[in-house]
Every structure is written in C-alpha cells, then in structure tokens.
Design brief:
Blueprint (H helix, E strand, L loop, with lengths): L9 E4 L9 H16 L3 E6 L11 H11 L9 E2 L4 H13 L3 E4 L3 H10 L30 E4 L6 E6 L3 E6 H4 L4 E3 L7 H11 L4 E5 L6 H11 L5 E5 L24 H11 L10 H15 L5
Parallel strand pairs: 1-2, 2-3, 9-10
Antiparallel strand pairs: 4-5, 5-8, 6-7
Helix pairs in contact: 1-8, 1-9, 3-6, 6-7, 8-9
Length: 302
C-alpha cells in the first residue's frame, strides 16, 4: 500500500498562555481555522510558552477549553514550545557553525545610548535597532560569555514578500531592526527562532495570524533562508482595537471572551474578518456557513 501523501495545506494557531483568549485572539484563531478547513487542510494548535515568566498557570487549559467550546478543534494534540529546547539549540548550533550567529553582551540601555549617539532616538511602538556593537567585524567578543546570541544579517537584508491580504511587502531588516536576538540574555529562546523552527518541524505551509505580527515576517524569512527551511504563505488578519485605538491585547487588560452564546461570539469575530454570516444558535451550522464564505473570499491559499 502506498503511503498517504502529506497534506498540501497545514495551518496553525499559536497562542501564548499569558491569559484566556479575548476578542482579538479569537479573530486570528477563527481565520486560521477557516483557512485550513476551506482548503481541505490540517489545523494545529501550538502553545508558545517559551517566555515562561509571562505564562499564567492554568491559561493553556483555559485557551484549549475556549477553542473547544467554539468548535475550533485541532487535528493533533497541542505542541508546547517549552518542550522543544533541543530543536532550538540545534538550529542555533548550526547558525554558529556557519558563522551566522554571534554572542552579544549589550544591555538595552547600552543599545539606546549607542543609537542616541548616532542621532537615533527610540520611539513608541518602534523596534530598538541594534547598532552592531558586538559584531565580529567590529571587535566583537573573543569568548562565548554572552548575554544573548544574535543573527548576523547578510549584506543584502532587504526582504520582499507577499501577504495574501496586505499585498506586496518590503522591509530592510538591517535598518528596521538590525541583527536580532535568537537567544535572550536570560537564557530563554527568542520568538523569532522558535517560531521558524516549529513551523518547519510541523510542516506548516500557511500562516494566518494577526496583523501586529506582519512586521516579524521579514526576520522569519531571513532565518528560514539561513537554516535552509521552506517559507510558508502568509495572511495577516485585521486587528481588534480598544476604545483608545490601541490593539486589544492581554497586556492592555483585554477581557476574556464571553462564551454564554458561542455562536454569537463567532459571528462577532467573523464580522471583523468581513464575513457576512448571520448568527445561528448552532456553532456547527455557523462554522459550516463561515467555511463557505471564507472559501468564496479566499478561493486559493496562494
């Protein structure tokens, strides 16, 4: 008997267990689930818990329960990043061996001071651009006693990519963020490395996530290229904003979802995604109609 070919589409939802799902995170979860179902693919859930100081006890179980009540059930047991350190270390080892990662002793205050000396002042919501202080060609470190490890960006760090919703995107990563962190000064793995390694290991072909993460995509593409990994297709969903215009988030006190009427909660999230699917008393019936509406709006995943 011939083995079953791998699915052409694998998507994922990757929440951090820093609190329960809220209206904004539900929009991303629903979009990724709908995209996978509309294209006959698999949908996975990955718990991004590498930033352990921010993780809240019980949050993972609550998130999974919320997804279950909303009918958004993954096709495999959830994967936890906290259990995958060996994979991240292997990726960092490879980058070190290839001369693409270097140790760094700079503190945030030192980076701010170095940028200020160059006339670059930090601004709200903007990335803190690394000035290259510890790069090997700038003197660097002569031992491995590092606060953190950074990716040594190539000379051509201009990345063009296409978002299925936002269209053509471009970022000069060297000017936007500089050499970015792979392993943090506190020994924890950086989001960029963990997400790239996990997407490849899980065979993820399509990433559907919130628009606030679009700015991370160019960095992840550079890492994928450095590690010889495939680049998924990307779609970044609209953000849900609070009354003050800020992105709705757990850090800004976003309330947990009210699930007394799960189908109504789904309909509200669907409206943010531009789906004109009326409310229904049945979660299953609403989701079935939402899949058809998503398929009509996103006929092909590429």
């Amino acid at each position: 008997m011939n083995p079953r070919p791998p699915p052409l589409y694998v998507g994922r939802f990757a929440p951090s267990p820093t609190g329960p799902l809220h209206a904004g995170s539900l929009v991303a979860a629903l979009a990724s689930w709908l995209d996978a179902r509309a294209h006959g693919g698999r949908w996975l859930v990955r718990i991004e818990d590498v930033d352990t100081p921010r993780c809240v006890p019980g949050a993972e179980a609550e998130i999974l329960s919320q997804l279950d009540q909303l009918g958004l059930r993954p096709d495999a047991p959830p994967l936890r990043q906290s259990e995958r350190g060996a994979l991240y270390q292997a990726a960092l080892d490879r980058l070190q061996q290839d001369g693409m990662a270097y140790p760094c002793v700079c503190t945030r205050q030192q980076i701010v001071a170095a940028n200020s000396a160059r006339g670059l002042l930090p601004s709200r919501h903007a990335e803190l651009v690394y000035p290259g202080t510890c790069r090997p060609e700038n003197g660097g470190l002569h031992d491995r006693r590092a606060r953190s490890w950074r990716l040594h960006l190539p000379a051509a760090a201009l990345v063009d990519w296409n978002d299925r919703r936002l269209g053509a995107q471009r970022q000069a990563v060297d000017r936007a963020v500089g050499d970015f962190v792979l392993r943090r000064a506190d020994g924890l793995w950086a989001y960029q490395l963990a997400v790239v390694v996990d997407d490849a290991a899980q065979g993820v072909t399509h990433v559907v996530r919130g628009e606030d993460l679009a700015d991370n995509t160019a960095r992840q593409i550079l890492l994928q290229r450095a590690l010889g990994l495939p680049t998924p297709r990307y779609l970044h969903t609209p953000l849900v904003r609070a009354a003050d215009g800020e992105k709705l988030s757990k850090q800004h006190g976003a309330p947990a979802l009210h699930l007394s009427d799960p189908a109504a909660t789904l309909a509200t999230a669907g409206a943010v995604l531009g789906l004109t699917v009326p409310r229904d008393r049945s979660v299953r019936a609403w989701l079935d109609r939402a899949i058809l509406a998503w398929r009509a709006a996103h006929a092909a995943p590429d």
